[in-house]
Amino acid sequence: MRSLLAIEWLKIKRYRTFWILIGFFIVLLPLWNYEISSGMISMGNSSINLLSQAYAFPEVWGNLGFWASIFVVFLSILVIILTTNEYNFRTNRQNVIDGWSRMQFYHAKVGMVIALSLAATLFLFLVGLIFGLANGGSITDVVDKFEQVGYFFLLSVDYLGFALFLSLWIKRSGLAIGLFFLYSIIIESILKGLINWKMDMKLGNYLPLQSSDELLPFPLVSLMKHIAKQPDASMGPYVIVTIAWILIYYFAGRMMLQRSDW
Amino acid sequence: MQTILSINNLTKSYGPVQALKNVSFEVPEGCVFGILGPNGSGKTTLLGTILNVLNADAGSFQWFGGMQQDAARRQIGSLLETPNFYHYLSAMGNLEVNAAIKQRGKDDKLRVLEKMGLLQRKDSKFQTYSLGMKQRLAIAAALLGNPKVLVFDEPTNGLDPAGIAEVREMIRMLNKEGITIIMASHLLDEVEKVCTHVAILKKGDLLLSGPVDEVLRSEDQVEVKAADMQLLEGVLATMPGITKVQVANDLIQVTCSENVTTQGINEYCVSKGIILSHLLLKKKSLETKFMELTNN
Question: Which of these, B174, B94, B193, lies nearest to B134 by C-alpha position?
């Protein structure tokens, strides 16, 4: 795996689009949150800014995680571009001709999804640490609700894995990016609404991307529950279903690649 | 001599189109093996299959007597169809990826770029290259790390006449150094000039394969005519050295081996009591031979 990732790195380290999209994530996530925490972006009466309440430990993790779950689309687009590039340049063929097996080609991309998610999670952790400490927390408070950092990792693998599967299937960048947005913003919301409409089970929450969105809900929701002294909902089912979806993308992609011509 | 590649009954179709039908042949070590055929005859499909980018429907192939296929491909330098490179990387950056996957040739980049005349443009992005330069880079990538076997699909595509001559000369030189070369071409001239062995494909069928001087040997044809054509046909069929007797219009066309002369045919017929009224030697070019093979 190390050597596969090293080769993947050779492919992208001088690719401007890669750095631009990574840059968006790295710059916009802290900037956006800084503006919220300092009241530049606000909700509610200016004397009681609801949005800016959650930047101290332990709320900062879930709060940052929620916003990061939106900015993770930059990384999803990156995965789509890097994967469809291979088809566009026909370098998927060249990689195999040069001696990779199809599975090595695939696992290099899967490895990239995991590495990007790890890096994004680490970044989230650093940003959260700075916000938390700046808002009067001490280093010993870090561990409280720390599992939400792990939720973000799962969410990222879910989104990027979905993007990878879509790219291997569609093979064309414009179409794949279009479908990604269409599904994640519109189709899934419609499906979720339809399924949850008359169901107590709320099965619509378990759709591919929604299942991981549920892990990091809009911060005000959890704040309100907290105030109303409602117990936090158990995240166990969503964790399991998210992992299941990730495995489904992995095995479906694997089957697709092994069968088809390149 | 060792067999580099053996192909057994490869079959492949795209929907209703049969691209390869039970193709079998062997490539001996040290040869320049040409795969010859008109456009759409299955050459690229064949090369794509033996390089594992296409899946065969049936049949099998073995590199180096059965080496694991991913490992075998790392020992082979290949150029399939079009040059495939990352557009945003330089020649050096691209070769670095090639060498990393091949696990060899890391320190060989400058040598192959120089060999293909690209040294001055080594740091330019691939997308700024002209068609001919892209083709040269593809050949350079194939040469990385001095592979023992080269697979070239139409290696002279997109090159100017000087470039074509250069690449052919290079193929001959590489072959002299003991490198086995498998190349597909639709140019008979190219195969005739550089290949030692040839396989001829037509619509997925393997028509012939073997050493070039056997397969593409130019045979002479002789036209004859006499009063009693039926008798003449019977007599000619019995003459030693004659491989084919064909009645065409009011003439008989005779295909014969090299040691048969028109004089010999005349003498033979006279000795059988036939007087020829027409006797004409027609030299057949390789071109005609090829057209005959590939057109019905």
Answer: B94
Residue A184 sits in which domain range? 2-259
From the CA of A207, how many Å to the nearest CA of chain B?
A: 35
Do you find a cis peptide bond into A58, omega within 30 degrees of 0?
A: yes
Enumerate the residues of chain B whose CB falls inside 8 A of the CB of residue A3.
100
Determine the residue of chain A that is closest to B87 in CA distance.
Answer: A89
Superfamily designation of domain B3-215:
P-loop containing nucleotide triphosphate hydrolases (3.40.50.300)
A10 reaches B (C-beta below 8 A): yes
- Measured between alpha carbons, how far is A170 from B4 in angstroms, rounded to an integer? 37
CATH topology of domain B220-294: Alpha-Beta Plaits (3.30.70)
Among A16, A84, A97, the strongest candidate for a mutation testing the B interface, having the largest count of B CBs within 10 A, is A97
| Cα end-to-end distance, chain B, whole Å | 35
Q: Which 8-state DSSP code applies to residue B125? A: B
Give me the helix-helix angle, B131-143 and B91-102, nearest 10°. 30
Judging contacts by C-beta atoms under 8 Å, the chain B residues touching residue A90 are 82, 84
ipTM: 0.90
Residue B249 Rama label (left phi>0; alpha psi -120 to 50; beta): left
Annotated domain spans of chain B: 3-215, 220-294
Cα angle, residue A115 at apex, residues A204 and A163 outer, rounded to 5°: 40
Q: Which residues of B touch A102 (CB under 8 A)?
A: 52
Residue B60: strand, helix, or coil? strand
Per-residue pLDDT of B73-131, as tens digits, reads: 999 999 998 999 999 999 999 999 999 999 999 999 999 999 999 999 999 999 999 99
Interfacial B residues in 10-49 facing A (CB < 8 Å): 48
How close B38 comes to chain A (CA, Å)? 23
Alpha carbons B285 and A76: distance in angstroms, whole number? 61
Average of per-residue pLDDT values in chain B? 90
Put simply, the answer to whether A6 touches B86 (Cβ < 8 Å) is: no
Q: How many domains does chain A have?
A: 1
